[in-house]
Amino acid sequence: MGCWGDEEEDFLKLLMPNFSENVTLGSASQASTSGEAGAVISPMNSHFSSLDCQDVLRNIFERLPVPDLARASCVCRAWNLVASDREIYIRAFKAPWKLKDVVGIPSSGSFWRDNSLGKFAISHRLERGDSVASLAVKYSVQVMDIKRLNNMMSDHGIYSRERLLIPISKPDMLINAICYIELDPCAKREVAVLYLEGGPDKKLNSLLNKVSSEQGRRRLVDSLKRRMQVDDGTAQYYLSISNGDPRAAISEFSEDLRWERHAGLS
């Protein structure tokens, strides 16, 4: 399947301490009866029914890092149901950096699948006299890293912004810290933002939320256009009459289609 590889034995050892011995004995017995030396026990057969138990799966998945959790969600529908739980993903996201909390809801669930250091940034509110070079020295990072993170082509881009996102160079800064998930309108990326002094600015946060909600609605409309195979205006109309519920919008559209077909046949 591509998602089930060398980590198979690690998953099963958590369930069965004597897994290695059981597999060896099981393989030997199968080989002796069938005459095939390379017999393999599938983890999804009747010998491993405990792998279908959600409580057992949850207990295992809560111990996994983000990459392994993503692989586990690809194994089968039952595993995906448990591995996609938001609480499990947030816990796995925080664990390597010993974060105290992560506040906010990302625009896409795929946000949780990458918890590398590059996913975090420091929010620096710009003041008179600040420059990209001076901030690079202050935070011990490279000038190009600041420009890349903030989607800046030149140093002059600093004058049109209220803040800059600064890459985190010292992972210890994240220990017991609270990060806020924000979609920066200038950087055009979603990151977990660390505020060294206080929390998010209310005015700035309002702007970020507005941009985030607009982009979220745009994605929703595009998704409805593909599902219903209609133009932009039609998708927005059905979304508006269903109070923003995409399922209700599709249901309303389907009802109208059925009515039109029935009227046409009549």
Could you characterize what this model shows?
The protein is an alpha/beta fold and 266 residues long. Helix content is 48%, strand content 10%. The chain is built from eleven helices and five strands. It has helices spanning 8-15, 19-34, 54-61, 66-72, 77-83, 86-94, 132-139, 143-149, 202-228, 232-241, 246-265, and strands at 101-103, 120-125, 163-167, 178-184, 189-194. The protein has a five-stranded mixed beta sheet with strand order 1-4-5-2-3. β4 (178-184) and β5 form a beta hairpin. α3 packs across α5, α9 packs parallel to α11 (246-265) and α10 packs across α11. It is flat. It starts with 7 loop residues before the first helix and ends with a helix. The model is unreliable at 15-38 (pLDDT under 50).
Please count the beta strands (DSSP E, at least 2 residues each).
5
Output mean pLDDT: 78
Estimated radius of gyration: 25 Å
**What is the spatial order of strands in the main beta sheet?**
1-4-5-2-3
Total helical elements: 11
Helix content: 40-55%
